[in-house]
Amino acid sequence: MSSAPTQLSTNRKRLRNLALLVLTGAVSFGVFQGTRRILKADPLEAYRKPVKDELPSNVAVFMKDSDFSRVEPNQPEAKCFVTEMRIAQNRQMYDFIGVSKGQLTWKKALYEFSAARGNWNGYGKILQLDGSVKLKSTKFDLASQELSYDEASRTIRVPRPVTGKLYGGDLQVANFVYNMENEEYSVGEGSWVGALASLGMQDTPGASGSREWKITFINGVGNIKQSNGIATYTDARATDGDIIIIAPKMVHDTKKDILTATGEVKYFSSKANVIADQIVVYRKEKRAVLSGRVTMLVKPKAQENEKVEEGTLPPMLPQIPDSISKSRPPAPFDKDTQKKREDTVRNGSNLRDYPLTITAGRIEYWYKKGERRANITDSPQARQELPEGEWRYAWAFSGKYDGEKETLTLESSKNKQDVILKNSLGDEIFGVWGLLSTKEGDDEYEFRANRAKMTTSDDDDIPPSKSGKGGGGLSGPIGNRRT
Fold this sequence. Notes:
Layout: H1 4-40, H2 45-48, E1 59-70, E2 77-88, E3 93-106, E4 109-121, E5 126-136, E6 140-150, E7 155-158, E8 162-166, E9 169-173, E10 176-179, E11 184-187, E12 190-195, E13 212-217, E14 224-227, E15 230-239, E16 244-253, E17 258-268, E18 272-282, E19 287-298, H3 322-325, H4 335-346, E20 356-366, E21 373-377, E22 381-385, E23 391-395, E24 398-402, E25 407-411, E26 419-423, E27 428-437, E28 444-453, E29 473-477
Antiparallel strand pairs: 1-2, 2-3, 3-4, 4-5, 5-6, 6-7, 6-8, 7-10, 8-9, 9-12, 10-11, 12-13, 13-15, 14-15, 15-16, 16-17, 17-18, 18-19, 19-20, 20-21, 20-22, 21-24, 22-23, 23-26, 24-25, 25-27, 26-27, 27-28, 28-29
């Protein structure tokens, strides 16, 4: 009897303990679940909400109207504003929509950019832009559809067609590469139109810095490079309408102000066409040196106003050896025809009426107005083709041209008779020195000749020397006839 209350009390305690145990388990499970939810929670969930269920699994962050910046010691500083930015789970890949206010800063130089789209690769440290790309600096203002920036090499590459401004001129080329470290750039096939003075070439002989020039690039491989004051142009054609210059390679040293063109350099102008292995222009001195197989075609005066076009220089025809010419049957003789021949060939006043071809190993020319002159060395020769197959030919050891007086002096080497004049009439002069006038309509000449042979259609004598400068001299108008 006495045991009943004790059993009831014990059962109640068991029930109470069981209830506490269940409650404790429930609480513990709730805490566990809450903790689990907290640990699994995404701290950037707020950024995901605007595009819920739209982000790829590899995207960790989506941001709108944000600034992107890239700053590392001893590297160019980069930053831009983007309308939309997606950051990958690896936090190294960034995708951009609407890139604007872009800036690259290096060595106090600022390069601005913008594009429709872009991405940053943190592994390769490369920025890619595409769609309506703009690139601007103090030297250029360009537009294209694609651009890449390589932070490691500090190089900007535009691999697709480029239009815009370069050094104030209009640029339209296949591609563009720029190195920010040494400020070197190169372009591909295309053209540049502007004042040649901005590229440092306005004092090329015959060129004018105030005129508009067009440079065409023809092989599309590094046609312009500029680095540390040295500008290199390869496979370029430059023209201002009056002059055409074509060279496989042109190098301009802006510090020394020297322009060097090498290869088969071609120069076409209204007065003369030139081909040479090398042309060096010393702009400060206004001096040009043409060397290595120099061939010059001096145009007749009647062609000086014609449009300048590229062309080929006719080869200088060799003189027919005496052994061959003497074996040919003579042409039928007619005195009137012969007199006409003689007047044409010997009349120096018609020197500017026919093309004149000059060859030499080296021509050094000072082109400053009032000081125009030239030294012609390394076996200079000159040949002029006349009507009806007639010709005039001259050789010398060296020559000197005075552009102000319009005279040409021919000289021999020491103790030699290197000054030789021949023509299709059979006239020959061998001497040590000669002076010719190159003025239009002026047929004056003077020679110190050791030996001379002149043919004539009548019995008139060749006029005696007027110079009084040594025996055997000849002077006067060529073909002068006493009556």
